[in-house]
């Protein structure tokens, strides 16, 4: 296992990087807005808030530049917190998935953008980051930067990004900051937060107030092996296949073998049977959804390797890809394509160290809670890729390890006059919640319920128990 010592070493290295950076000359904050201001995106309806996008260089030698999209809050941005959103993959775009199909202010629809009335910028200033380099519009002038990219380098680059972004937007430097994201962001976010906490011990640079993780990978075997029970309980596989999937070859073993190019005959046989029964006409990211909307949204680079061949035609994804590949859109976004011919939802040029998947991050979540940072883990309850049962088990186990008592017993919560999901809170600092009827990308499939969850999270309140 990876010890906490390893994380400490990483954190100290990052502190040194930042101190070096402080000694360098940085862009003066007086230059902060004009070059990154978006006057209007093609097809965009009129809005009263400002939005910005552009590049922040995170490595001057290799010219690694991360692309961001920043949307100020609809009303009174100066009084609202700053929220960083990261999508997973690793290698999938926070601009295309997070901003344009989940919780951003607009969604592409043919030639135009339509308003998302449940956009998270109703409650916060939202910052979407395409990370690591090689994802979306983010690039490096050295192609070696795309090779053997790992969690450690990603966390360090994300940290430098934030620091330099604050130089461009100094009015946000001391604003309450929340980190949010989903899927493989269960790795990205705890690691980034951990570096922030380490730096804050020396000099308080970040007002980190909480992290929220949606359907996150936190502990590989628990998360992946809850898939069998989810399939079985939802009627997607038979009793006999369920028995094989739990005894002969479970999903974490299959993924481990797959990424080591050594899939055993027994695992191959079990996975073929599972695939045959679940069928390719059911979206694994939302088992109740009809399959046009599917793989968009699927941040499936690593966590669902056996789905990689299923290219179902996808409506939403096609709209986003078409929109973001328009020259006029790229110009309005101050974006450019470097080393790739087109913008893609998930990167084809990034070579990520996929075995980082097996390093648990749940212990880092525990150290953040110990440092006083509130953590919310939430699950769209129709996702079979990272099912709610694994996440709930991990949160419960962590609460016990930390000696946290239940402060809100397991109960329903409401949005409008309907049950929005279920929740449980430990020690008023560690929370678990489900979003009823939501997919792996909860804000996409249940936007209203997701916005309610987000608002409660920012306010530090339990989810509403009455309608």
UniProtKB/TrEMBL annotation:
Originating gene: LOC110757043
Protein role: Probable carboxypeptidase.
BP-aspect Gene Ontology terms: proteolysis
Intracellular or extracellular location(s): Secreted
Family, similarity comment: Belongs to the peptidase S10 family.
Its EC number(s): 3.4.16.-
Gene Ontology, cellular component aspect: extracellular region; vacuole
Pfam families assigned to the protein according to its UniProt record, in alphabetical order: Peptidase_S10 (PF00450)
GO molecular function, one term: serine-type carboxypeptidase activity
Name of the protein this chain belongs to: Carboxypeptidase
Keywords attached to this entry: Carboxypeptidase, Disulfide bond, Glycoprotein, Hydrolase, Protease, Secreted, Signal
Predominant subcellular localization, coarse grouping: secreted
InterPro entries linked: AB_hydrolase_fold (IPR029058), Peptidase_S10 (IPR001563), Ser_caboxypep_his_AS (IPR033124), Ser_caboxypep_ser_AS (IPR018202)
Signal peptide: 1-28
Superkingdom, taxonomy of origin: Eukaryota
